[in-house]
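Work Package 3 (structural annotation) set out to generate three-dimensional models for the target panel prioritized at the project kickoff. During this period the team completed the workflow that converts sequence records into discrete structure tokens, so that structures can be stored uniformly alongside our sequence database. As a representative example, we reproduce one entry of 131 residues exactly as it appears in the project archive.
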Amino acid sequence: MNTNVKHHLILIDDNDIDQLLHSKIIEITVPETSIQSFGDATIALNHIKNLGATSNHHTIIFLDIQMPVMNGFQFLEAYHLLPTEVKQLYTIYILSSSVNQYDISKAKNNPYIKDMLIKPLSKDTLTNILR
């Protein structure tokens, strides 16, 4: 384990190009960051469940909305059922290209969503989040 890691991030997005782009932006902007990418929200949720409350660090999740199998809102419904001690280890940002007003309203009204960001993630936005 790299002891220089200052930030832990999870990317949940079914688009490989977006995952690669955002990983590179993160690596360049904040090199002391641990990044885990999941193309399937179900697998990401299982990862979080398996870690449970054993994690000793806070993690930021960047969550896409439009995904097959389990979309971002379905992920949030399942996330809601996790124990509080697990949920307190994560901060979730929607990172989406959606300009659908229903999606935006639904995201902004979800208690687990810190903010809704429009793709692509910018260096400035990332820097502000990690302050």
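The chain has six helices and five strands.
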